[in-house]
Amino acid sequence: MSFFQIDRRGVLKLGALSVYSKTLSASLNSATTSHQPNISNSKSCIFILLQGGPSHLDLWDPKPHSSREIRGPFQTITTSSPDMQFGELLQESAKIANDLTVIRSVRHNFNNHIAGTYITLTGSENQPNQDREAHADDFPSPGAIVNHLAGTPPQVPRSISLPTWLSIPGPSNRMPGQYSGFLGSVNDPFLIKGDPNSKNYNPLSLSMVKDMSSMRFSARMSLKKQLDSAAGLLEKGLQKQHDSLLQSAYDMVTDGRVRKALDISRESSRIRDQYGRNKYGQSLLVARRLVEAGVQLVSYNAFNQQWDTHGGLEGRYRQLVPEMDRGFAALVGDLKDREMLDQTMVVNTGEFGRTPVINKQAGRDHWPNVYSTVMAGGAIRQGFIYGKSDNKGAEVAENAVAPADVLATMWRHLGVDPHAEIFDRLHRPYPISSGRVISEILK
Question: Was domain 4-441 assigned CATH 3.20.20.300?
């Protein structure tokens, strides 16, 4: 058993690295940047993925004057931004609408959940429109790119995902878009598992083995490094990356900032209630605490097609939306109250929208032709609508936006040139984002 426990692919399986060291070593040596972009240490992003495809028509882009089969079962409400209306279940988001930009014209060509998730997280259209598992040649996730550009691992990790990986049925259960792809698994984001709303929340990913003192831990780490070196299991290039990863894991366990950020009991009952006493709300509170501790990219994954509503949409949304609405609004408001919103961009999106017509099962089906993405913080304009869907919410009417454009805008906020190149294992160059910065939504 490892002398520490940390849930990051490549750390849990340190011994297994030697099995494929030659392949991974080649990957690590060739996956480099043409120039090393600077990531602003003062900027951060919280990326919320509502996986499954939330309905733009019932949330951010209602059509109150359409027939019921289009507008759906919910009423439309006014918001704190005079020209912006939301679906009736977004009561809390309506109050902070004057801090938001709602992009109502996002689109792509993939109606499969896995493909839609992949393009949302990477911007890459180089994929089939079908289920598949993550592959070593995938385009890397934003968290992996952040880690790759970081160079020497900092004491506080650059990127963290929570509260779970997205998974799919298959041999590995690895949904593409979340991992490091051609940058090599040492760049995978750290995963913080678990439900922060649980009384027993104490992520094993950052806990020492019982009775393991910091001094003893350091000695054990030194011994393991000596054994690895003496055994000659890892080639020189991989050893360098392995040592950096091991040091990063060690720093995370012994440095107090991340552990304190995960100790959600330090928050007042008032703040915890404000976010909502549920997995979604408390996870977003943890995200804010991690950003406060210095993490630059925190990704929240709504678990496995949670927003997939082919039938019974009304009942499902009356359960699902209020938790998301409350947590999201609390996050934006909390960041603003703490004077962190200008430095922290928040992205709230699904991988596509839902069909403009309610089906026979009283639900909506997959619809990538047009949907909404909501952004706040950073240099994002406030109380602003960008783009437009047609009067049925079926197609883009004005200012089409691609997922890669959203990512390019995020990279700009983080101080990274979206067109800077990274290289795959065959030394083929790829821009970090193929999209354009959406300058119209910036102040």
Answer: no
